[in-house]
Write a structure and sequence with these properties.
The protein has two domains: 1-33; 38-187, Rossmann fold. The protein has six helices and ten strands. The chain has helices spanning 2-32, 38-52, 81-86, 123-130, 166-171, 178-183, and strands at residues 54-55, 68-73, 90-91, 94-101, 112-115, 136-139, 151-156, 159-165, 175-176, 185-187. The strands form two sheets. An eight-stranded mixed beta sheet has the order 3-4-2-5-6-7-8-10.
Length: 192
């Protein structure tokens, strides 16, 4: 009887050890799947909606069926949430895709670029590298619009608001729908 009890304990301990090893191996994947904040869920929806209310010049795409690409430069605050939003969506016949970039040189082919707050110290160089290109630049970094960015997302009073630099969008040959402009705070009508 004691041998049987000892054997059961041994099996139970072995099963716990196997379970512990399996969970330990899976933990990096479990930790990587951290939930996205409500703020960035709303900002992801804004990025999706900006694509609906901006018109790009023909040269911004190499063909009529090319993807409309939303790029994220720097640390990704959206996780898979943004991917889930754009999955199977199209804008003017262009399927939407998400691309993550570590360097400004990687944003070729992007129509919308979200400049993450991790790029705060050198976003002005990023904007300079994109000057003259038809890329809608969006960020939540302070001073982004004032320094040539096109749209800044801001949290005020528990709600997300946005500011548009019309001068920058005009220089990039982007047309912003009046429906979007009515909701925005406007800055830079003369390119300031």
């Amino acid at each position: 009887m004691e041998v049987l009890i000892s054997l059961k304990r041994s099996c139970a301990i072995r099963m716990r050890l196997i379970l512990f090893v399996a969970l330990s191996a899976a933990c990096p994947f479990l930790w990587a799947a951290t939930p996205i904040s409500k703020e960035y869920q709303v900002k992801a929806i804004f990025l999706f909606n900006f694509a609906q209310f901006v018109q790009w010049p023909v040269h911004a795409f190499t063909g009529p069926d090319d993807a409309l690409t939303i790029c994220i430069l720097g640390d990704d605050p959206f996780g898979s949430f943004l991917d889930d939003i754009v999955r199977n969506e199209k804008v003017d016949g262009h399927p939407m895709v998400i691309k993550r970039c570590n360097r400004v040189e990687d944003v070729e082919g992007c129509q919308i670029l979200f400049v993450s707050s991790s790029e705060r110290d050198h976003y002005q160089k990023i904007l300079a590298a994109l000057r003259g290109k038809s890329v809608l630049t969006v960020s939540d970094i302070d001073g982004f619009v004032r320094n040539g960015g096109m749209i800044r997302l801001m949290m005020e009073g528990g709600k997300i608001h946005f500011r548009i630099n019309l001068g920058s969008t005009k220089k990039a040959r982007l047309k912003i729908s009046s429906k979007l402009l009515r909701l925005a705070e406007i800055a830079g009508t003369e390119g300031n």
